[in-house]
Design a protein that fits this description.
mainly alpha; 2 domains; 3-stranded antiparallel β-sheet; elongated
Length: 266
């Protein structure tokens, strides 16, 4: 918060006393060329704090008149775009990192901090804590824990990672902003605009919906607790419904396999 108040938009308020602050000063902060959503957020927090402390007798800008936050739409990374990113990446660790994000849909920090302690090859699963959620136990259950089954593609990625410790030892030392900047540079190299690392999570959600994965399972995979948030990630992706004959054939296959196991006693 202190860093936000030292930014250029807030310099307008630096020369004013609290009781001298008026709406014109606030609008000057919000309309500054360097102002963004964070400026809006911290200025509103500043007003609320001053009002609660009774340093102000009334809000400088009433709640109905407060400007809305302009949210930037995150664009999901397509399979073709991902292929271009991978093909142009010369750093093996960076390439594997992008492939891991594509396969898991994990957040950039969660995947960067992944260690072999969270990988169980015998059981075929990876477990990690969502960085945004508290790592704690409630009523005997661990909160914020995501468990992913290791498929053939994910196993191929793991086989190329360091055999012990962190899977991405260099990238985990970077600040999230540095990883974001590096990804933006990679996108510029391949001619992609307005793409973010978060786009991999959106891409995974849309791929899951298009493949017909049950919403609850996809939510658990991404660590979403809200259906509204998950739907925002999935966007306008349309699920492809398989014909009934596929499910009937699959059911028949399971019955035959069960009867064979019963006959052999396995």
């Amino acid at each position: 918060m202190e860093r936000a108040f030292r930014s250029k938009p807030f310099l307008v308020l630096a020369r004013l006393k609290v009781n001298e602050t008026d709406a014109a000063a606030f609008w000057a902060v919000l309309s500054h060329r360097k102002a963004g959503n964070s400026t809006n957020h911290f200025l509103r927090r500043l007003q609320n704090f001053a009002w609660c402390m009774r340093w102000l007798f009334e809000p400088v800008i009433p709640t109905p008149l407060w400007p809305k936050v302009k949210k930037k739409k995150t664009i999901a990374i397509s399979a073709a775009e991902h292929a271009r990113i991978i093909a142009s990446e010369q750093n093996p660790e960076h390439r594997l990192y992008s492939e891991m994000l594509w396969e898991t849909g994990g957040s950039q920090s969660d995947i960067a901090n992944l260690t072999w302690e969270r990988v169980d090859l015998k059981r075929g699963a990876i477990s990690f804590y969502r960085d945004k959620l508290n790592e704690r136990e409630e009523e005997g259950q661990i909160c914020g824990l995501s468990v992913l089954v290791i498929g053939s593609r994910l196993r191929a990625i793991l086989n190329q990672c360091p055999p012990s410790g962190y899977l991405f030892p260099t990238l985990r030392m970077w600040h999230s902003g540095h990883r974001t900047t590096e990804f933006a540079r990679r996108c510029r190299i391949v001619g992609l605009k307005n793409r973010q690392l978060k786009g991999y999570r959106y891409a995974w959600a849309q791929r899951a919906q298009a493949a017909g994965m049950p919403q609850r399972e996809a939510m658990n995979h991404l660590g979403h607790k809200s259906k509204a948030i998950h739907q925002a990630y999935a966007g306008d992706a349309h699920a492809v419904t398989l014909p009934l004959e596929h499910y009937e054939a699959e059911m028949q296959r399971k019955i035959v396999k069960f009867q064979q196991n019963e006959a052999t006693g396995t």
